[in-house]
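Quick one, T. Sequence first:
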Amino acid sequence: MSLCLASADRLNRRVAELTALFTTIAHTRMAGVPVLNTALRVEAIGFECLPPSEGDAAGLGILVTPWFMNLVRLPLHRNDSAAQVGRTHEELLAGQRFAFIGAHEAALGAFGACSLFSPMFEFADQASAHATAVQVLAHLRPSPVPAARTEPAPARRSFLFGRSAVPEVRP
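C-alpha cells:
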C-alpha cells in the first residue's frame, strides 16, 4: 500500500481539523473585520498527499476563507512546535518554487501557508473562489500523460532483408 493511500484517513482528519479551526476563527477573531468578503465561507479544496520530504508526510491543497486563499502544506502528524513560525520553506510545484510561511495554531499545530489572494473582494461568490482554487491546483499538479503509442519495431533479420515487421497486405 502506498504511503498516500495509507495516509488518506489521516489527511482527511487533518483537513477536517483545518476547516473547523478556520471556521471558528471566521466567527470569532475575524468577526466584523472589514477585510471579510461575506459572500464567502471557509472551504478546503483538493488536498492530496505530497511525496515525503525530510521525513514528514504532508498534504497540499487550498484553503479558501472570507479573507484569504492560501496554498496550505499540512503535516499529516500534528507538530506542536512553534519554532518554524514566520520562517519560509520553499516547495517545488510544477517547476516553480513557492514560499510557504510557517504558521502555528494551538488547535491544529504547525503548518505552512503560501498566499494566493488576500483580501478576497475580487470573488463575487463561493463558486468563483472554488473554481479559481481548482484551476490553480490543476496548473500545479501534473496531469496523467497517456502512454505513447509505439509502432512495432522491425525484427533485425527483417530489417537486414528489407522486410518490415508488419506484414504487407496485398490486394
